[in-house]
Amino acid sequence: MLINETTIDVRYPDCDRMGIVHHSIYAVWYEIARMAFFADMGFSFSDMDKLGINPPMVDLHMQYRSPVTYPGQVTIKTSIVSYASKKLELKYETWYNGAMVAEATTFHIWTGPDMKSFNMEEKLPEVYAKIKAAAE
Fold first, then answer.
1. What pLDDT score does 88 carry?
2. How far is CA 99 from the centre of its chain?
3. What is the DSSP string of 31-88?
4. How far apart are CA 103 and CA 91, in angstroms?
5. pTM for this model (two decimals)
6. Which of 82, 105, 108, 126 has the fewest Cβ atoms surrounding its Cβ within 10 A?
7. Whole-angstrom Cα distance, residue 123 to residue 100?
8. Catalytic: 16?
9. Residue 14: helix, strand or coil by DSSP?
10. From CA 107, how far away is CA 87, in angstroms rounded?
11. If we measure between CA atoms, which residue out of 13, 116, 114, 102 comes closest to residue 65?
12. In percent, how much of the chain has pLDDT > 90?
């Protein structure tokens, strides 16, 4: 199973008045980690753009365990939870100072240039094979 680890610097402007990273920043971190995950899988966002492929997120679920503060770094561990020809679910673990401080999942559907759902296994079997290999 492919598990991508993306390290991100905690920035001062990411924090609220209490000095804690604002909850909205986690979604940005997960986007950064997702792009790195797809690149490691061998199907980068620029590859998707060239083919007119989009994996729009249709669901995001997050659970916070403890706060992240400035300064520091977080590591996001990204992996595949489940996949099928038209959908993909990813898991994110946020690590800070040696502890997992948040977990999240995102659910995506595969769409083409017309923004309609399509079957990745039929349309791009070589890409589907990369997804399958990353999940195993």
1. 98
2. 19
3. HHHHHHHHHHHT--HHHHHHHT-B--EEEEEEEE-S--BSSEEEEEEEEEEEEETTEE
4. 7
5. 0.94
6. 126
7. 38
8. yes
9. helix
10. 7
11. 102
12. 97
> Which residue, among 95, 126, 133, 89, has the nearest Cα to 110 in the 3D structure?
89
How many structural domains compose the chain? 1
Helix, strand, coil % over all residues of the chain, rounded to 5? 30, 40, 25
Catalytic, out of 9, 14, 16, 49: 16
What is the average pLDDT score of the chain?
96
User: Residues 134, 89, 82, 95: is their CA dihedral positive or negative?
Assistant: positive
Kindly report, residue by residue over 3-20, the tens digit of the pLDDT. Answer: 999 999 999 999 999 999
The CATH number given to whatever domain includes residue 14 is: 3.10.129.10
Residue range 25-66, pLDDT digits in tens: 999 999 999 999 999 999 999 999 999 999 999 999 999 999
